[in-house]
Structure formats: C-alpha cells, structure tokens
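Need a sequence for this fold. Nothing fancy.
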C-alpha cells in the first residue's frame, strides 16, 4: 500500500504586510501654501469671504458659477502663511494686511478671481439660499406644533419620541399628545431641535456670503467695518472641501 500524507496549510501561516500607511499633515499644509502662492500669481483679485451655515451643496453652485475662479478653504494660519504674514514674507505688496484680517475673522475662505469688482459684488451681495438651521442657530420666532395627528410613517414615532416630542402611536397613526415648541425665539437650537425641524421640512436659516474685504494691485480694501471673529478655531468643518 502507498501512503500519502496531505499537508494542510495552517491559517496562521498567512503573509501579513507590515507596511502601515501614515498620514502626513505637513505635506498637506505645504500643498495648501503652494496653492495659495500659485493663485496669488494667477489672479488679480483676492477676496476674504465669511459665511454661516455653509454646506458643500451651497459651495457647489457657487463654484459652478465661478468656474474661471478659485475658492480656497483650509486652516486660516496655513492660508495666511501662503499670503505672507509680514512685509518680508509676502510675495506681493499688501498681502500681509489680508492675512491679518483673515486670522481675525470667523469661518471664512479666500476667493481668487480675475473678474471685475462690480461683477463680484453684484453676485455675492445678492446670493441667498434658504436652508435647514443647524444646532446653535438662534431663531427669530417660536415654531409651535399643535396637538394632534402627525402625517409621517408610523415607523417614525419612536424616533420622534427619542428627539423629545410627546408622541404616541394609535391604530398606526402618530399622535402629538400636547402642543410642542420645535423652536423658541431667541433661544439657540439644540441638536434634537435641528433634526426635528428638518423632519418637518422647516427651513429657518439663510445661507449667504459676506464679503469682508479684497486685495488688488498691492492694496487691501475693507468692505465691512467692525468685523469680529465668530469663532477662535480654524476652518475644520467636515462638510467643507478645502480645494
């Protein structure tokens, strides 16, 4: 008789790659600085723009309308380095003034363009889009939901109750057991309130661009007086693309 021995490969003998991909934030910052400096050479006007409640869908439309121009987002300190934070660092005269204003502003971006000032002001000063308010937004009016039937799928009842609404389910119908305020005038929205307003398709906030100032031909010009920072942090909103 011939004896055959079958060797079964052990699962423990698998090849495991020891290569680990590590992030290099330094390279990302260098690329952003380089991009800012390239745009300084390419465009005649540089605008400092601030905004509230910004989302990528807002910027997508603006970018489409200004395909011949450039929006740049990123950490304000890094953007300022690209512009030059002093006379010695700046590539062109007056950019350090824009860099200083950039760091003193709230959530903002740089907008590079070769279009005329009148064209830019006409577009951005009239642009407005109604949108859902985020947590922290302060409504100007109280929004009250009356007691009674809520016209939503019955599967939403548990979620509505989790968000704080006094609801119940009877015969497959969601009922609000008592009058409920979705928002209170002068009081900042909580995350749960913001979600409820979205579920009820109630848009309380307006997205718009605020032109703070612009640089052109060696001069920085303020367009808004008494601009104060709304936040001390950098632009790190997950919803915003840097490029």
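Here you go.
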């Amino acid at each position: 008789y011939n004896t055959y021995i079958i060797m079964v490969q052990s699962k423990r003998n698998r090849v495991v790659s020891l290569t680990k991909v590590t992030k290099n934030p330094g390279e990302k910052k260098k690329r952003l600085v380089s991009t800012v400096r390239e745009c300084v050479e390419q465009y005649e006007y540089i605008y400092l723009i601030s905004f509230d409640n910004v989302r990528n869908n807002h910027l997508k439309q603006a970018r489409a309308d200004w395909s011949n121009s450039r929006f740049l987002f990123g950490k304000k300190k890094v953007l300022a380095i690209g512009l030059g934070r002093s006379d010695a660092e700046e590539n062109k005269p007056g950019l350090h003034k824009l860099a200083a204003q950039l760091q003193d502003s709230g959530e903002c971006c740089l907008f590079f363009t070769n279009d005329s000032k009148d064209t830019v002001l006409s577009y951005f000063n009239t642009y407005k889009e109604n949108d859902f308010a985020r947590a922290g937004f302060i409504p100007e009016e109280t929004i009250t939901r009356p007691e009674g039937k809520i016209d939503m799928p019955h599967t939403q009842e548990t979620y509505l109750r989790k968000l704080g609404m006094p609801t119940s389910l009877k015969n497959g119908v969601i009922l609000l057991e008592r009058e409920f305020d979705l928002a209170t005038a002068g009081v900042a929205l909580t995350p749960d309130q913001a979600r409820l307003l979205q579920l009820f398709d109630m848009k309380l906030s307006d997205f718009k661009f605020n032109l703070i100032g612009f640089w052109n031909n060696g001069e920085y010009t303020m367009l808004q007086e008494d601009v104060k920072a709304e936040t001390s942090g950098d632009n790190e909103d997950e919803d915003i693309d840097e490029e």
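For context: The longest strand covers residues 209-216.
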